[in-house]
Amino acid sequence: MPAQIISGKDIAEQIREELKPRIDKIKEKGIVPGLAAVIVGEDPAAMSYIRGIAKGGEKVGIITETVSLPTDITQQELEKKVVELNEDSKFHGIILQRPLPEHISDSAIVNLLSPDKDVDCLSPINISKLITKEAGGFAPCTPSAVIEILDRLNIEIDGKRAVIVGGAGKQGKTIGIMLLNRWATVYFCDYKTINPAEEYQRAEILVSAMGLAKKVKTDWVPQGAIVIDVGVSTDEDGKLSGDIDFEPVKEIAGMITPVPGGVGSVTTAMLLSHTVTAAEELTK
Question: Does 9 map to a domain?
């Protein structure tokens, strides 16, 4: 029997609907939740992502402002802008599109981000809270989307064998940590893993975060596994693709997320959710 196709769009819509009464309550105080999206340069993919965020925010009543800065901005100028946004009460969340230009110190910038407004977990303080399971702070939006999908489908994480394909990458590591925090048994696999297909066959939950189109074939996926595709790239025909070779894999998986319309849709909704939570905390 073919897999159940997990609709990230439907889950994202559920999240947005649940945000509306929370946003209305904030607005009763005369405050509108605000998100600042900082982008240095003119990366078309980043601009498209921000437009998607703004569109989703508009549906629920969140103001999204794009802070577009020139590629040749100096370190001092960018640091000044981040401090300004930290102090601007109009914004409750801040995201920073990366990578930054080579002449900018990435670590210096993210260290300046207010942890209270860092809604995509760039600040070392929030990263530390995530790793140590300390209360407060925000987890990164894409790994949060993976957990949200599993929770909304009532998939038990506790005790499950979860395999991360691309486990050495930033997304893979963070997803693995969040699954560990929920008591999954997590296997981190990457290009140096010996006999990787053997490891993948352990999975009850298989998460791929490589960014290599259609890399995950049927021999990597156990019968009935829950398959979450985080990777996004283009295939040989120039079409948007996930890591999973979707058509054949869906014939053996138990559940599977598509690309597009899967994790990415929920990621944007989680960013809005984090912004609302930040607004609630900052306006108490």
Answer: no
Question: Per-residue pLDDT tens for 171-191?
Answer: 999 999 999 999 999 999 998
CB count within 10 Å of CB 85 equals 21
Give yes or no: residues 88 and 152 share one domain. no
163 and 255 housed in the same domain: yes
State the pLDDT at residue 126.
Answer: 96
Q: Which amino acid is at 178?
A: M
Q: Which of 190, 185, 138, 135 is CA-nearest to residue 165?
A: 190
Residues 184 and 228 occupy one common structural domain: yes
Residue 235: pLDDT band with limits 50, 70, 90: confident
Domain range spanning residue 77? Answer: 30-115
β-strand 63-69 against 34-40: which pairing, if any? parallel
Q: Are residues 111 and 161 in the same domain?
A: no
Inter-residue contact 230 to 173 (CB < 8 Å): no
Concatenated DSSP letters of 136-183: SS---HHHHHHHHHHHHTT---TT-EEEEETTTSHHHHHHHHHHHHTT
Structurally, the chain folds into a number of domains equal to 2
Alpha carbon distance 258, 238 (integer Å): 17
**φ, ψ dihedrals at 35, nearest 5°:** -125, 130
- 214 and 156, same domain (yes or no): yes
